[in-house]
C-alpha cells in the first residue's frame, strides 16, 4: 500500500478526471466557446489559459472567468479551475484596460530603477489587479538572462544580462505575486537568453551552451527562484545541441525535466510544458506523441493554446499512452498531487465564485496610479548626454521646429503564450508573427503619433513628425532636417531591425554636416531614443545623447516627454553588467604596457611584491604574504597565461603588474591580480594594465565570460574586502571600469591556529557517526575520473584545476572524499596538501610562516547531499586529523565560498585570514565596450 501522504484525496480514482487536471488549454473569442465548455464539462480540463484575444476589458474579464468557474462547478469539478495568463507589463500584457488596469514598466524597465523594493511593489500591484478579476495563476516571472544581448527576441522581457541581478529581481517579482495570492510560473527553462535561429519554419531555436556554461549563468535565476519557493516552472520548446546534451525539444526531454530540473535543481513544484502546438513539434512528432513524451519527460501540465482538434488529440494521446502502459498511473497520480497542491495554495471555490471585481479595482486605482508614475519616473535612463542637449528647451526656441522620426512598427505581442499560439502558424519566435492577431496596446504608429502631439503640447511649438522604414533616408527626411532646429530619432529594437541602426547613423551624419544661413558649419542637436531594447546604441559613443524607455506604451512615452523638457530628472540606469561602462572612455594618462618577460622582470616583480606587502595596514596580514614571482606562473597546457607590466625601462623597476589566465575548458578569462606600486597609484597605471588585459582576453578563441579573482593561483581570490574604506574604494574603482561589483560573491581564506591543543566541538564526532556517509583519503591519478566528474558538475571556475594538480601531486597532495555507501556516490570532496606540494607554490600563504602549516582547499559538496554542513565538517575534521600527523601547528583553508560556509567553519574554530569578492561578467559586455 502506498504511504498515506502519497495517496490521492477521495473522489480522484477516475482516470479521465485525473488526466483533465494535467492540461492547460486556451480558446478563441471573448466569451465562453462551445469548445472550452466541452473541454471543461466532458474532458474535466483543470486549467484555462487566457490571453489578449479573450480579454476586452476588466469588467468582461471578470464575467468570463466567473462563467468558466461556474461551468466547472456545475460539471462536478472537485476543485476550481486554474486561470492563467501572462502579465509581464511593458508591452506584454494579456489584460489591458485603460480605466481599471494600470500600466507598469517592463521587467528590464523595472530593473533600471535599481530598486528591489519598487519591483516588489509593482509585482504585488500587478497580481492584485489580476486577482480582482478572478485570475489565480500568473505565467511569470521571466527568469531568462540575456547572455547574448544581440538578436534575442525576449529583449526587455528579461531583467538584463547579469545572472545575479536577474535572479534578485526575479525573486522579488515572484514574492510580490505570491504575496497577492497568485501562483507563480517561472519561464522559460532552461533559458531563452541565447538562442540561435536557423530560419526554417519547421526548426526550433537552439541552445548551444554546455550544461556547465548554463549552470554558471543562465540557470542562476531559476535555481534561486526554486530555493525561494517558486510554484511552477514552464519548460521551453527549444532544442539543445551542446557537449553532453542533444535534445530536440526541451519540454519533451527527461534529461532537461527529470534530470536537470527535478534532480539537479531539486524542483518540487508543477512543471508546465511549452505550447505543444508549435509547428516544429507537430511536423516532427505530432501532438499525441508529443503529449506522451512531455508526460514521460516529467511535465505535470501540458499546454495547448487554441486548436480544439489538436487539444482533443493531446488528451486522447495521453489516455492511449496510459492504456498501452507507456505512461504509468503512478506518474499521472504524482502530477495530479502536485496540481492539487498548487490549487490548494492559490484558490478555493469561495474565492473562485466570488471575485472582488471592479469594486476592488476602483479602490486600488489611486495607489496603483501613483505607483505606475513612480516606477516609470525611476526607470527612464539617459545613458549619454555629451553636449548637454537636455532639456531641449536649452537648445531650441519655442518658435523653432522640432523633428520627430519614428519607425513603422507594430505593437509588441500581447503575451508569451499568445506568441506560442502564433508559432503554430508562423513557426517563429519573432513577436511580429503574432502582431496582426492580438495586442495589449494600440498600434505602434498610433502611440508615436500621440508622442508627437505630446511633444507639441509640452513645448507650445511645432513638431514635424514622419516615419521611416527599411528604405532608409529619403528626400523628405533630408528636407525636414534642414527645416528643423533639433531632431529626435526613435528606435525600437534596432539590434534585430538593423535598418533602424543604419537610419539613425545616417541621420547623425546629416545632423553633423548641416550649415547655417551664413554658410558656417553648424551641428544640429540630435537625440536618439530607444523605446525597446536599450542595447541599440548602448556602447556607440557616436550617438552623443541617448535615452532608453524600455517600452513604448503611452505611459512610458509620456514620461519620456517630461525628461526631454526638463520636467523630470531621469533616475534610471541600464541594468546588468555594462551600466557604468561609459566611464572606461574617460580621458586619462596612457602608460606603455609590455608583455611580462620572466628573465627580465622576475626580480623586479619580487621587489614590487615586497613593497606592496610593506604597504599593508598595521595589524593586517597582506594577501601577498609568501608570494613570489613564481607563484603567478601556472605553466599548464590547457591554461593560456598572459601577464603584463608597466616598468621603467631605464631602472628596470616595475610600477605595475597584471596576471591573466584563460581557462579553455570553460571559456573563462580571469584577471588573477592587478598590483600597482603604492607610491605611484592614481596615475592611471592600473587603468592601462586593465585595458590591455581585457583586450588580450577578448582575443582568446571561445571566450565566454570574465572573472575578477582567481582560485588558481590562489593569491587574490577577488577584490580584497578586509578594510571597509579600502574595500569601498576598490569596489568603486572596478565598478567604474565596467565590472558589476554590486553582485559579487564572497569567497575567503581561513586559518585554524594552535592545532596541537585543538579539539572538535562537542557532539560533532557523534553526529558524523550517525550519518550514512563514509570518508576516505585517496592519492593519485587512478581516482581522477570519478573525482573530476563530481567536481565538474558542482564547482566554480578554477577549482577543477586545483583538483587536477592535487591528483598528480602524491604523496604531498591528496583528496578526501565523502561517499554514500549504498551506491558509492561522491557527496563531497576536499583537497589536502602540505608546503612541499606543487599546489603550495600557487597558494603562497602556506609558505609564509616558519612553522609547519597544512593546507586544505576547495570544498565541493554535491547538491544531492542531504546535510551540507555535516558533510563539510566531516571532510574538514578528517583533513585536520591527517595534517596533525605532520606535526603542523596550523591549518590554512582557501577557496571557501559564501558567508554561510564561514559560519560553519567558525564553529570549528577557524578565523578569517583574507576575505574577497569574486566578480563575474559576460564576455559580450567587454566585446561591446571595446568594439567602439
Automatic annotation (TrEMBL):
Pfam short name (any one): Acetyltransf_1
Glycoprotein in keyword set: yes
Molecular-function GO term, any one: hydrolase activity, hydrolyzing O-glycosyl compounds
Superkingdom: Eukaryota
This protein's UniProt keywords: Carbohydrate metabolism, Glycoprotein, Glycosidase, Hydrolase
Full protein name: Beta-N-acetylglucosaminidase
Family: Belongs to the glycosyl hydrolase 3 family.
Domain N-acetyltransferase: 636-708
Organism: Penicillium malachiteum
Biological process annotations from GO: carbohydrate metabolic process; peptidoglycan turnover
Gene3D superfamilies for this protein: Glycoside hydrolase family 3 C-terminal domain (3.40.50.1700), Glycoside hydrolase, family 3, N-terminal domain (3.20.20.300)
Domain Glycoside hydrolase family 3 N-terminal, first and last residues per copy: 15-341
Keyword Transferase belongs to the record: no
